[in-house]
Specification:
- The chain is built from 5 helices and 6 strands.
- The protein is of the alpha+beta class.
- The protein has a single domain, classed as Yope Regulator, Chain: A, CATH 3.30.1460.
- The chain has a 6-stranded antiparallel beta sheet, with helices on one face.
Length: 166
Amino acid sequence: MASTVKKTNPDITACTDLLAGYATKGFFNGFSVEKETLKQARYQLHWHFNRLYQVDINLMTGKIQMPVVFPNVKSRSRMDKDFRAFIAERCSPVQLEHRRFNREQIKVVNRSSNLSLEMVLTEKLSAQTMMRFIGLIHEVFKIFLKNGQHDTYVSEQYQIDADSFW
């Protein structure tokens, strides 16, 4: 009887292990692997505002993405523009070199009023790459939203009192 051995990609496995470790340490409220193949992975993170967030790795397109960072944000709205400006700041020479992203590496996309964030893999996928991507998303929630400019969005979208959250 032939045994079936699941082929895995060590780079994707390293990212999976990193995210699982974050969940074990309490950085996420929960974590699951939806899909993991040699070329793709899909994860569900139970994270900010007690919501689920999807993170995808696609080695065929060379991207890591969070398809919905912020739902219900109209294209060209103030929040859309502010979010793009915030991400652009993360590519600025003012940022410390180890925290700075290449402008061609990070892309904000608004699809059907859902703001997403994509990171083009300019080098081989690694746990460090995923760590940087997750760190950027965390900054989005802890710095971008905390500035108070989008409290109405926070209150309406996440059904919380923005003042009590911060």
